[in-house]
Specification:
The structure holds two protein chains of two kinds. Chain A is mainly beta. Chain A is built from no helices and eleven strands. In chain A, the strands form two sheets. In chain A, strands 2, 4, 5, 9, 10 and 11 form a six-stranded mixed sheet that branches. Chain B is globular. Chain B starts with a strand and ends with a strand. Chain B is mainly β. In chain B, strand 7 and strand 8 form a beta hairpin. The chains are: A mainly beta, B mainly beta. At the A-B interface, strand 4, strand 5 and strand 9 of A face strand 5 and strand 10 of B.
Chain lengths: 113, 117
């Protein structure tokens, strides 16, 4: 069964303290892995798409990487405004070819000044 | 840019009542989706519409119906609300056809918070 697991569930950092969020997945043929940011009371906001192992994408203090089994979202020198829930989602391209997007449960990040 | 607009933002229903959640996008996207988000469950796909005139079931379709009214609008209907349908509902749209090989990201609205008592 296709599955996406994010860890940790919650993460508290001091401003400037770098860390990484993990997204591990099992799907039959990965088409794409997506990272989203979700602020309280808002819908998810798209950050990155990764397609193949070894690929990396960067945006400001965020960098996403992809291996065959997992993705990491690295946060370098975070600021309080980076506080949010970060969602990982995968799109499978297996035999069913539905392109279904499967979401993880998210990691809630709190950055304290 | 409005993006994806959902109405209403909040709704309280009694068990057995019906209602329709509205969604409209102004990005000329082909595909539209309805998700629900529950604590500890992540986002789960209810229904989707790959293109105008087509709809398909997602992971949790029971108790819901949808209508793709035109390219812009995709509504979700609860015919007889149940407490288990208390959730936050998100509408999303994407540029590419859902089953195509081109992966375009989903753009989400800000949700409808529904409580069924």
């Amino acid at each position: 069964e296709d599955q996406v697991t994010q860890s940790p569930e919650a993460l508290r950092l001091q401003e400037g303290e770098s860390s990484s969020l993990n997204c591990s997945y099992t799907v039959s043929g990965l088409r794409g892995l997506f990272w989203y940011r979700q602020d309280p009371g808002k819908g998810p906001e798209f950050l990155f798409t990764l397609y193949s192992a070894g690929e990396e994408k960067e945006k400001e203090r965020l960098k996403a990487t992809l291996t065959k089994k997992e993705s990491f979202l690295h946060i370098t020198a975070p600021k309080p405004e980076d506080s949010a829930t970060y969602l990982c989602a995968v799109q499978d391209g297996g035999s069913s070819n539905t392109g279904k997007l499967i979401f993880g449960q998210g990691t809630t990040l709190q950055v304290k000044p | 840019n409005a993006g994806v607009t959902q109405t209403p933002k909040f709704q309280v229903l009694k068990t057995g009542q019906s209602m329709t959640l509205q969604c409209a996008q102004d990005m000329n996207h082909n595909s539209m989706y309805w998700y629900r988000q529950d604590p500890g469950m992540g986002l789960r796909l209810i229904y989707y519409s790959a293109s105008e005139g087509t709809t398909d079931k997602g992971e949790v379709p029971n108790g819901y119906n949808v209508s793709r009214l035109n390219k812009r609008e995709f509504s979700l209907r609860l015919e007889s609300a149940a407490p288990s349908q208390t959730s936050v509902y998100f509408c999303a749209s994407s540029e590419a056809l859902y089953r195509s090989s081109y992966n375009s990201p989903l753009h989400f609205g800000n949700g409808t918070r529904l409580t069924v008592t």
